[in-house]
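sanity check this record:

:::
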Amino acid sequence: MSTDPQPSSTPVPPIATRHKGPLELRRKQAAVEMSDQHLLDTKGPGQFVHTDPWRVLRIQSEFVEGFGALADLGPAVSVFGSARTKPGSVYYELGVEVGRKLAEAGVAVITGGGPGSMEAANKGAVQGNGVSVGLGIELPFEQGLNQWVDLGINFRYFFARKTMFVKYAQGFIVLPGGLGTLDELFEAMVLVQTRKVTSFPIVLLGTAFWGPMLDWIRGTLVEDGMISEKDLGLIQVVDEPAHAVDLVIHGAIRPAPGSGAANGRPNGNQRPE
């Protein structure tokens, strides 16, 4: 008679897991507040303000770790999109194709390292035998880096992470997404508009998704004089992954409406000032 333990038929409940820098926390420990939560929260405990000078060292360490890990990355493009995109969906497959074509062109793929469209682009990079990078962030509902990330870095602070997305990429490809995607998109547009970065193409993938937003920008922001007509030339919108990859690699930019000619961008290799 065998004495081997029999597998239990009782389903194992999911375990709450959260990453905090190099730590992995589970169950009750996962409910602990994020380390950067009080940095921007002025309603937090008053004594925290006395620790802010020391927190600079932790912030500095994130930049040092990021710079050190990515310094030798080579040509790269940051790809953004929704974490909620489902595998097998049209947007997911677009992400896979973008990642694959970038890898086949010898360009590394940088994403936020999460699920959805980020996972898709990382997956495509691996399938294309390229370099797949994920820059994760500490969040209360995070799932950790996806399985297709080969070089992963976890950050506590959004601003340190966002610096890496721009500094080590020659451009952005943006798939349909939500608030996080829009945050990255508009920050990049501001950096290009204010010339904090140069030769930095921003390509949106999916005219049906992005069209209404562009119509609002044109019909409200431009019409009300909040931005100029030429600012629309900061972004390009296409439907084919191959077209998006070609634009971002070669640094092309479409002419701004009424400008008469395209503003050439040489090679997309310049970095932020």
Residues 197 and 272 are 5 Å apart (CA to CA). Confidence is low (pLDDT under 50) at residues 252-273. The longest strand covers residues 132-137.
